[in-house]
Amino acid sequence: MSKKTPITVARGDGIGPEIMDATLDILTAAGAALDIDEIEIGKAVYERGIMNGIEDSAWASLHRTKVFLKAPITTPQGGGFKSLNVTVRKALGLFANVRPCVAYHPYVKTNFPEMDLVIIRENEEDLYAGIEHRQTQDVVQSLKLISRPGSERIVRYAFEYARANGRRKVTCMAKDNIMKMADGLFHNVFDEIGKEYPDIEQEFYIIDIGTARIAARPGAFDVIVTENLYGDIISDVAVEVTGSVGLGGSCNIGSDFGMFEAVHGSAPDIAGKGIANPSGLLLGAILMLNHIGQNPVATKVHNAWYKTIEDGIHTGDIYDSDFSREKVGTKDFAAAVIERLGQNPKKFGTVDYGEGTGKGLVLPPLKTRKTEKKELVGADVFLDWQGKPEDLATKLKPALVKGLELKLIANRGVKVWPDGQPGTFCSDHWCVRFVGQGVSHVLVLQQLASLEKAGVDFIKLENLYTFDGKSGFTVAQGE
Length: 479
Ligand code: NAI
Ligand code: MG
Fold this sequence. Notes:
Elements (H helix, E strand, L loop, with lengths): L4 E6 L5 H14 L4 E6 L3 H5 L8 H10 L1 E4 L13 H8 L4 E7 L13 E7 L9 E3 L5 E3 L5 H17 L4 E6 L7 H13 L6 E6 H10 L6 E4 L1 H15 L6 E5 L4 E5 L16 H13 L3 H16 L2 E3 L10 E3 L1 H10 L34 E11 L4 H8 L8 E7 L2 E4 L11 E7 L5 H13 L3 E11 L2 E2 L8
The structure holds 1,4-dihydronicotinamide adenine dinucleotide and magnesium ion.
């Protein structure tokens, strides 16, 4: 191996230091060329009163190396502390969460020995922006934001990942039968970018049946790409189905950064006892080696790890008298892996990550598109009001300004005026749609002023636009 790659390492809390030592011992013995810069994060930093668990000096290291191998930390409960994971993810723009979910049958019990899939979850957008507002006595709103560049980047990442890792298929999951615009955008981008990857099989599932299939037939999947919330849920379903929550490694990737870790936490109940399984962090470190282009080392470590598992050398968490030969602690497990460096597994398939580029996955720039003509054609004004739809219409009509007409009134997405169904339950949260020709912002403001004068409490405004003449808003159910 030629030049050493600078990386930032944090030993974390609980079992963190033990599993990090074991992992680094294995990487070093395998010939990984790493120039390690250690930073402190987690409990000790929180206890110094730093609310997000990471000091300024640590950021400097991360910005220099752009590669972060991180042991789990103990997140303090309550007291206004912020999650370090979320802070790092957002600050470094780590848009992709990559989580391989693999069955290790028969050493770890599972109904699906053939399972070997990777979930690629969008990490920054969707409902996780956490933009929420209480708008009336009875109704709160959580905004779901899906962007075209965000969708393109994650979908592209999934295809590039599949190619680089010899995977044959990418499955997209979303709910565009209901969220026609937000999830429709995600699905469309998948179809569009997919055309550039004819060598890779492609399919789409509505998220609910997709999730059910993961639980019942996980062997049918290879790489799955999905939005943030769906990805959060299906990751847990998939990892549970493998039977080995404790053996998961994962990474968070941005255009310029990568953070690599175990899926599990700091396991305070077994900390300091020397019995923790270092496999989750080691598998995270293997993802890191591939990211920095040390693929041959990743191959060597992964094969040695498989051989150790199939030789029955197990830590207590996966020890089973039927399949295990020897129960070992953290250090002896690492020694057993080191002893097997250069050997290949016999029962598990041999892993080969190829040569690697040394640049991680390099994504092409975002596609440029022609700017569409955006035209204001009306406004949805949301009201806090109680009563019957007809009474609201009667109240609004005299308050209409010239140039706008009252198109409809909806309650929680269902049209209730004109010609509503008598059985529709109405909350105190109403949407009134005004439309017109040549609508201007000034006209919308005049309409708001007129509503104010009529004593109507408006809580929110959504402008209605067309883009190149195509509608940029949904119709209400029943419209
Ligand atoms: P946990 O994953 O730390 O532990 C759950 C159970 O699994 C425990 O019984 C533990 O002994 C066992 N376990 C976990 N990793 C193991 C390993 N490598 N070898 C053997 N046994 C293992 O989850 P828990 O108890 O909910 O959380 C503990 C702390 O970790 C909390 O402060 C939590 O906030 C934090 N945490 C940190 C994460 C991170 O830094 N990425 C992720 C998840 C939790
Ligand atoms: Mg989760």
